[in-house]
C-alpha cells in the first residue's frame, strides 16, 4: 500500500477479473475503492476455488483494499442508489453493458465531469472473455511442440487469463489519464476498452501482426524455444528441467562459460561460417545445433552443480516449478518483501498476500489489506456518500433494497466443491 492516490474515490461495479483488477491496483496506491455488488453477491462471488467455509479465494484476492456495498441491483431502487453513488463519487469502473442501468449518460446526469471506464468484450458489442479473445488473436496455434504438424495440431491455451490482467492494468492507466485531463480542463470522459482490442492490439504492437503479413503466413511452432533469440528448456542428469535465455551479449557469454563449451562453439562457428557473438539472428537461426551442444553438457550434470556454474557465470536461467512449489519457494515468496499476510481473510485461510508490485526504496510498503465481507460497508458508504440517516438506511435494509455485512454467514453448506 502506498498513499499516492489518497483522496481519490473510485466506484467499481464489476465482476470476474479484468474490471476488479482496476480497483485492486488503484486501492494498492491508496485510493478508496467502493465495490457495489448485488446483495447476494455478483457473478464472481462464488468463483472457484472455494475455501471450506464456501468463500471464493479468487474473489478474496481480487477485492483486497476495497469497501463493499450490497444493493438489490435487480430493483429500480437499488439501481438508482448505485447510479447516485457513481455521481457522488465522480468516477466509475465497470464491465456492465453500456445499455444497462449504469450507462455513462445516466451517471453523467447532473455530474457533467463524470469519468467512466467500461470494459467491453469486442468493439462491435459482441461478448468475449479472456480465452475467446486469445483464440481469436491466434496465440494458441503458435504454441506447442515443434514437431506437431501444422494442419492437425491442436491449439494450446494459456492457463492464466493474461488478457484480463493486461486489460485491468490498461484501464487503471486510462482512468488516471482521464483524471489528469479533467484536472487540466474540467472535462469528464467516457472510456470504453474492449478486451478483444487489447488482445488484437497487442498482436499489432508486438510486431507479430506485421511479421505474419510480411511473411505471408504463420511462423512455425517452436516448442519452448524463444522466438527470435536463443533460449530453450533443457533437462539435467537428475531429471530437473530448467529454462535458459541468451538475448544479450552478456547472457550469451554467461551460458557458454557456465557450460564450458567455448571450443565446441568455435568449431560450430567455423563450420557454419557465422559468429554467434554477432547477436540474436545467427543464434536463433542455428538454435537446434546450439541446443544440442548445451543439452549434451546438461545431461552429464546434476542440477545442483550446473546451477552453481550458471549462477557464477551470470547466466539467465530458472528451473521449472509447479505453482504449488512456487507458492512455497523462499526466494520467490518467503523472503520476498512483495508479500505480507492478512490472517483475518474472510475465507479463514492464512496465506501470503501480494502488496503493490511497485517497490519504492524510500517508502515502506504497508501490509496488504484483507478483502471485505459482502456488504460490510453498505451503511458507512450510504451514510457518507448519499447523506442517508441511520433510519433511512435501516429501512433500505429491512426492505431488502440494501444488505449489511454477510460476515457471520457460512456458505459451506450452500456452495459445494467437486
Model description:
The chain is α/β, with parallel strands linked by helices. The chain has two domains: 9-203 and 337-403, Rossmann fold, CATH 3.40.50.10540; 236-324, no CATH class. The chain is 39% helix and 14% strand. It contains 17 helices and twelve strands. It has helices at 18-28, 57-62, 76-89, 104-108, 130-137, 162-185, 195-205, 208-215, 249-259, 262-272, 280-285, 287-298, 303-312, 323-327, 330-334, 378-386, 390-398; strands at 9-13, 32-38, 67-71, 91-94, 115-120, 189-194, 230-235, 241-246, 316-319, 339-341, 352-354, 402-403. A seven-stranded mixed sheet has the order 6-5-4-1-2-3-12, sandwiched between helices. The protein has a three-stranded antiparallel sheet with strand order 7-8-9. A two-stranded antiparallel sheet has the order 10-11. Strand 4, helix 4 (104-108) and strand 5 form a beta-alpha-beta unit.
What's the count of strands? 12
**CATH-defined fold name of the largest domain:** Rossmann fold
The level-1 CATH class of the largest domain: Alpha Beta
Radius of gyration: 26 Å
- What is the N-to-C succession of helices and strands? EHEHEHEHEHHEHHEEHHHHHEHHEEHHE
Structural domain tally: 2
Give the N-to-C terminal Cα separation. Answer: 36 Å
Topology:
Layout: E1 9-13, H1 18-28, E2 32-38, H2 57-62, E3 67-71, H3 76-89, E4 91-94, H4 104-108, E5 115-120, H5 130-137, H6 162-185, E6 189-194, H7 195-205, H8 208-215, E7 230-235, E8 241-246, H9 249-259, H10 262-272, H11 280-285, H12 287-298, H13 303-312, E9 316-319, H14 323-327, H15 330-334, E10 339-341, E11 352-354, H16 378-386, H17 390-398, E12 402-403
Parallel strand pairs: 1-2, 1-4, 2-3, 4-5, 5-6
Antiparallel strand pairs: 3-12, 7-8, 8-9, 10-11
Amino acid at each position: 500500500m502506498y498513499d499516492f492516490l489518497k483522496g481519490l474515490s473510485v466506484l467499481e461495479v464489476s465482476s470476474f477479473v479484468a474490471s476488479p483488477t482496476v480497483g485492486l491496483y488503484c486501492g494498492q496506491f491508496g485510493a478508496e475503492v467502493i465495490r457495489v455488488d448485488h446483495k447476494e453477491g455478483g457473478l464472481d462471488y462464488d468463483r472457484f476455488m472455494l475455501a471450506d467455509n464456501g468463500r471464493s479465494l479468487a474473489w478474496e484476492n481480487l477485492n483486497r483494499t476495497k469497501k463493499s456495498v450490497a444493493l438489490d441491483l435487480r430493483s429500480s431502487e437499488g439501481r438508482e442508489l448505485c447510479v447516485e453513488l457513481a455521481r457522488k463519487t465522480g468516477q466509475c469502473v465497470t464491465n456492465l453493458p453500456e445499455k444497462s442501468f449504469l450507462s455513462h449518460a445516466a451517471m453523467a446526469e447532473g455530474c457533467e465531469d463524470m469519468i467512466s471506464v467500461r470494459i467491453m468484450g469486442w468493439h462491435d458489442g459482441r461478448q468475449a472473455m479472456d480465452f475467446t479473445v486469445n483464440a481469436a488473436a491466434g496465440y494458441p496455434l503458435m504454441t506447442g511442440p515443434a514437431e506437431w504438424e501444422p494442419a492437425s495440431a491442436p491449439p494450446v491455451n494459456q492457463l492464466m487469463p493474461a488478457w484480463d490482467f493486461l486489460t485491468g492494468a490498461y484501464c487503471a492507466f486510462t482512468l488516471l489519464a482521464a483524471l489528469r485531463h479533467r484536472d487540466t480542463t474540467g472535462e469528464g470522459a467516457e472510456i470504453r476498452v474492449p478486451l478483444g482490442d487489447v488482445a488484437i492490439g497487442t498482436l499489432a504492437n508486438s510486431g507479430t501482426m506485421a511479421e505474419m503479413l510480411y511473411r505471408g503466413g504463420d511462423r512455425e511452432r517452436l516448442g519452448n524455444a524463444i522466438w527470435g533469440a536463443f533460449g530453450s528448456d533443457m533437462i539435467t542428469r537428475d531429471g530437473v528441467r530448467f529454462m535458459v535465455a541468451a538475448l544479450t551479449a552478456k547472457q550469451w557469454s554467461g551460458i557458454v562459460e557456465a557450460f564450458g563449451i567455448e571450443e565446441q562453439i568455435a568449431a560450430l562457428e567455423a563450420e557454419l561460417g557465422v559468429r554467434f557473438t554477432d547477436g540474436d539472428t545467427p543464434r536463433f537461426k542455428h538454435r537446434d545445433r546450439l541446443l544440442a551442444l548445451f543439452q549434451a553438457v546438461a545431461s552429464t550434470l546434476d542440477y545442483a552443480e550446473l546451477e552453481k556454474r550458471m549462477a557464477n557465470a551470470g547466466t539467465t536461467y530458472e528451473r521449472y516449478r509447479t505453482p504449488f512449489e512456487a507458492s512455497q519457494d523462499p526466494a520467490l515468496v518467503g523472503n520476498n518483501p512483495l508479500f505480507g499476510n492478512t490472517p483475518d481473510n474472510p475465507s479463514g485461510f492464512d496465506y501470503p498476500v501480494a502488496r503493490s508490485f511497485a517497490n519504492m526504496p524510500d517508502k515502506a510498503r504497508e501490509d496488504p489489506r484483507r478483502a471485505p465481507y459482502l456488504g460490510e460497508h453498505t451503511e458507512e458508504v450510504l451514510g457518507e456518500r448519499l447523506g442517508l440517516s441511520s433510519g433511512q438506511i435501516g429501512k433500505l435494509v429491512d426492505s431488502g433494497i440494501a444488505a449489511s455485512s454477510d460476515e457471520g454467514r457460512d456458505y459451506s453448506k450452500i456452495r459445494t466443491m467437486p
